[in-house]
Every structure is written in C-alpha cells, then in structure tokens.
C-alpha cells in the first residue's frame, strides 16, 4: 500500500512540474501585455513533417525557459520538402 501511495505522489509531482511552452501566433504575442521576447532559437536539422519540427521547437523552447513560442518553418528549395525550423520564444 505504501509503495502504491509513493508511486502516486511521485507521478503527481512529475506531472505538475512538466509545463510545456505554449504555441502562439505573432498576433497573440503582440497583444499579450505580459509577454517579453527572449530571442529566436534555431534548430539545424531536416524535418520531414511539421509535427516533428513542432516537437523539437517545443522541447528547445522549454529548455530555454520560455512560456510561449511562435514557430517559423522554412522549406529550402531543392531539399525534397525537408524543413528547417526556428522560433521566437517569449517569457
């Protein structure tokens, strides 16, 4: 019984501390009073899908302590549709 209770408490603490950055658009960023830009992050990988790119941007934004991010997906000509990503991050 104690093991189950400890596992529940540990799971609750892990879930409550995991706060992922929230994706916003540029219009939202301009209209939010409490948002401050932290700069732009770049990820130099080729991503085949937008979902892969968004996961990578979200993870990187979290590592920089950002609360919000606005992703920018760029496709390079002649790259078979692969994407490079960057995002403006906000606190």
Automatic annotation (TrEMBL):
InterPro entries: BhsA/McbA_stress_biofilm_assoc, Dodecin-like, YdgH-like_sf, YdgH/BhsA/McbA-like_dom. Keywords: Signal. Residues 1-20 form the signal peptide. Pfam families: YdgH_BhsA-like. It comes from Buttiauxella gaviniae. This is DUF1471 domain-containing protein. Residues 37-91 form the YdgH/BhsA/McbA-like domain.
